[in-house]
Every structure is written in C-alpha cells, then in structure tokens.
Amino acid sequence: MSEGKNIIPIASDHGGFLMKQFLIKKLEESGYTVKDFGTYSEESVDYPDFIHPLAKAVNDGVYERGIIMCGSGNGAQITANKYLHVRAGLCWNREQAKLTRQHNDANIISLPGRFVPFDEAWEMVKIFLNTPFEGGRHVRRVEKISKLL
Ligand code: RB5
C-alpha cells in the first residue's frame, strides 16, 4: 500500500498556495517526488476540501509523511487530526519541527502559509522529513493520544 518514503504528499488552501508551490520546487530539486493534492491557484477555497484527501491517504498508510498548510496552519492541522492514525503538528520554527518528530512522532507537518518566511518553512520541512522519533517515554504518551475518555 505504501508509496514509499520519497513520495511526499502536499496540500493547501489559497492561504498556503504560494508556500506550497515554493516547497514543491524545493522538494523536487532535492530529489523527492511530490504528490500535489491542490489547491492549484490563489482563488479562495475551503481548506477541508484539500486537506481531507491527503490526511486520509496518510491515515491509510499510502504515504509515510505529508505536508499541509493554510493561512494560519490551524484549520489544516485541525482537519488532519480528525483521522485516527494522523498526528499533525503545527510548526512555526525549526525547533518545533524537530520536537514534533522526536516527541510526537508526527506524520504530518502543518505550516502557517501567511506567517513564516518560505525559506524557514523549507528548513522546517527538511527537519521534519529527516528527524527520527525518539521513542522511550514518548511511545507511551503517543499511544495515549487516541485513548479517549
Ligand atoms: C483562509 O482565509 C484562512 O481562514 C485559512 O487559510 C486558514 O488560516 C484557516 O485556518
């Protein structure tokens, strides 16, 4: 089922569109194959329409890790985290990108397309794609996330 580590799915609404295009270029220049789930212009759209398909594919194991964004990163992250096997971390800087992999085993990074420089977003993506989960005490914590009361 898995399309492998080197295919990276990416999705945004209009608020994240320009950042998405920038990241696609950087990813492809770095040798990744990108699966673009849209949106495909700056025309106003509803972020769940583009985030749901990506989040479902990650949830189903088609892709190991994905990248999403909207204007703030919040709507995209909230949508993706509706899926049981998705752990989407909202990241504003490199340290958060590292921690959401090391501590949360995040399989999706959510970025604020209107609030961080694109170069900084690319640094965060590289860290997100290359940082392993730390395991240890964090395994127990991550397992507890889906144990609802
Ligand atoms: C769109 O204007 C904006 O609401 C959206 O990109 C996102 O920030 C929502 O959380």
Written description of the protein model:
The protein is an alpha/beta fold. It has one domain: Sugar-phosphate isomerase, RpiB/LacA/LacB (Ribose 5-phosphate Isomerase B, Chain: A). Helices cover 42% and strands 15% of the residues. It contains six helices and five strands; from the N terminus they run βαβαβαβαβαα. Strands 2-1-3-5-4 form a five-stranded parallel β-sheet, with helices on both faces. Helix 1 links the parallel strand 1 and strand 2. The protein is globular and about 40 Å long. It starts with 6 loop residues before the first strand and ends with a helix. The mean pLDDT is 96. The structure holds D-ribose (RB5). D-ribose binds next to helix 3. The site of D-ribose has 8 residues, from helix 3.
The strand order across the widest sheet is 2-1-3-5-4
How would you characterize the largest beta sheet? 5 strands, parallel
Number of domains: 1
Compute the number of helices.
6
Summed over residues and divided by their number, the pLDDT gives a mean of 96
* Number of extended strands: 5
CATH superfamily: Sugar-phosphate isomerase, RpiB/LacA/LacB
Overall, the morphology is: globular
Radius of gyration: 14 Å
Estimate what percentage of residues fall within beta strands.
15-25%
CATH fold naming: Ribose 5-phosphate Isomerase B, Chain: A
> What is the correct CATH architecture?
3-Layer(aba) Sandwich
- Alpha carbon gap, first and last residue: 32 Å
Q: Any ligands, ions or cofactors bound here, and which?
A: D-ribose
List SSEs in N-to-C order.
EHEHEHEHEHH
Low-confidence stretches: none
